[in-house]
Amino acid sequence: MSPVSPYQVCVAFLLRDRADGRTEVLLGRKKTGLGSGNIVGLGGKVEPGESALEAIVREIEEESSLVVAPADLTEMGLVKFAFPYRENWSQDSTVFVTRVWRGEPQESDEVSPAWYPLDELPLDAMWDDAKHWLPAVLAGERVLGDFTFGEDCATVSHHELTLST
Question: Choosing a second label site near 126 at 20 to 30 A (CA), which of 43, 53, 119, 135?
Answer without folding.
Answer: 53
